[in-house]
Amino acid sequence: MIPTLVIGLREGLEAALIVGIIAAFLGRNGRRDALRQMWIGVAAAVALCLLIGVGLVTLSQELPQQAQEGMETVIGLFAVVMVTFMILWMSKHSRYLKRDLEGAASDALARGSAGALVAMAFLAVLREGFETSVFLVSVLQNSASVASGTIGAVLGILIAVAIGYGIYRGGVRLNMARFFTVTGLVLVLVAAGLLMTSLHTAHEAGWLNVGQATAVDLTWLVRPGTVLESLFTGVLGWQARPAVIEAIGWLVYAVPMFCYVAWPRRRKAPAAKKSTEPAPAPVDAA
């Protein structure tokens, strides 16, 4: 439940922030016509993402067992690539997201193109929704409880929508850089576990046969039905007897990514303003 809640919260808040910033900008500039179009575009993007998620689940269930393992591997690796890109991008741009979006919106309105803002909101929701669909499908396929994972995802999205609405109305203040750093660290662990699971399903599909010896025996720690078992398998992706290639994949991905996201970043110093006053005339020495 924890991994899907974080995924829903993180991805949902990104989309809610972008839509909320654009909606507030259009409202301040009296473009209610474009605002209505934007909400239609957002609804269409959400519906399209739901269709993608349902289609992936349906296709996976209709395949033979070995083909299902192969498809789970492909979806899992694709999800890892997408979430990695998203983590890296937000690590660089979260602090200045509002400023950059309002700058782009101002330029679009200056050119008389409110349609660009509608397209921006549609594509933002479509991108985040597509990432969420693929990531959640991959996580839920390897979840011990699909119902619990689904509830976590729905709760995360609802919390994200509530926070986004609060920011839009001006009643919620949130340190974006800190928020995305903390959730980014959790997602690094989830993605590392997803990579580990993908390496396992790749072996089940007959694609990966090296490094299949047991790396470590965790049966004394990862016992079925315990809190530690939920933590290790549900969040970290570690099974009771992980293979060598799975443990290596987890470490190679998680350690550098965790260090990168956790590394403190300095704020850019504002550029010094150029003085418009004339330079003083040189003084001749006596």
TrEMBL record:
<feature type="transmembrane region" description="Helical">
    <location>
        <begin position="109"/>
        <end position="126"/>
    </location>
</feature>
<keyword id="KW-0472">Membrane</keyword>
<keyword id="KW-1133">Transmembrane helix</keyword>
<protein>
    <submittedName>
        <fullName>Iron permease</fullName>
    </submittedName>
</protein>
<feature type="transmembrane region" description="Helical">
    <location>
        <begin position="71"/>
        <end position="89"/>
    </location>
</feature>
<dbReference type="InterPro" id="IPR004923">
    <property type="entry name" value="FTR1/Fip1/EfeU"/>
</dbReference>
<feature type="transmembrane region" description="Helical">
    <location>
        <begin position="6"/>
        <end position="26"/>
    </location>
</feature>
<dbReference type="GO" id="GO:0015093">
    <property type="term" value="F:ferrous iron transmembrane transporter activity"/>
</dbReference>
<feature type="transmembrane region" description="Helical">
    <location>
        <begin position="38"/>
        <end position="59"/>
    </location>
</feature>
<dbReference type="Pfam" id="PF03239">
    <property type="entry name" value="FTR1"/>
</dbReference>
<dbReference type="GO" id="GO:0033573">
    <property type="term" value="C:high-affinity iron permease complex"/>
</dbReference>
<keyword id="KW-0812">Transmembrane</keyword>
<comment type="similarity">
    <text>Belongs to the oxidase-dependent Fe transporter (OFeT) (TC 9.A.10.1) family.</text>
</comment>
<feature type="transmembrane region" description="Helical">
    <location>
        <begin position="179"/>
        <end position="199"/>
    </location>
</feature>
<feature type="transmembrane region" description="Helical">
    <location>
        <begin position="243"/>
        <end position="263"/>
    </location>
</feature>
<feature type="transmembrane region" description="Helical">
    <location>
        <begin position="146"/>
        <end position="167"/>
    </location>
</feature>
